[in-house]
Specification:
The protein has about 70 residues and is of the alpha+beta class. It has one domain: PAS domain (Beta-Lactamase, 2-Layer Sandwich), CATH 3.30.450.20. It has one helix and three strands, in the order H-E-E-E. Strands 1-2-3 form a three-stranded antiparallel sheet. A hairpin with a 5-residue loop joins strand 1 and strand 2. It is elongated. The mean pLDDT is about 85.
Length: about 70
């Protein structure tokens, strides 16, 4: 199961593109999107992730999720 399986269908395509760009460039990821909860309802969240870098600034472990906040 992919993380985007929990993202609202109207938000999923943009979330994938935005995430892929952040992974490729090392830029921070930040996006408001709807995520399905265990009861099946979608709720808005602000999702964030930052690049993990080594001491030389090179991306070492991809992106690490930052705490998400609900709107």
């Amino acid at each position: 199961m992919d993380w985007t399986d929990f993202v609202h269908p109207e938000d999923s395509a943009n979330a994938k593109v935005t995430w892929a760009y952040a992974v490729q460039t090392g830029e921070s990821y930040e996006q408001e999107l709807r995520i399905r909860s265990k009861d099946g309802a979608y709720r808005w969240f602000l999702a964030r992730a930052v690049a993990m870098r080594d001491p030389n600034g090179k991306i070492s472990n991809g992106l690490a999720p930052a705490p998400m906040s609900r709107r």
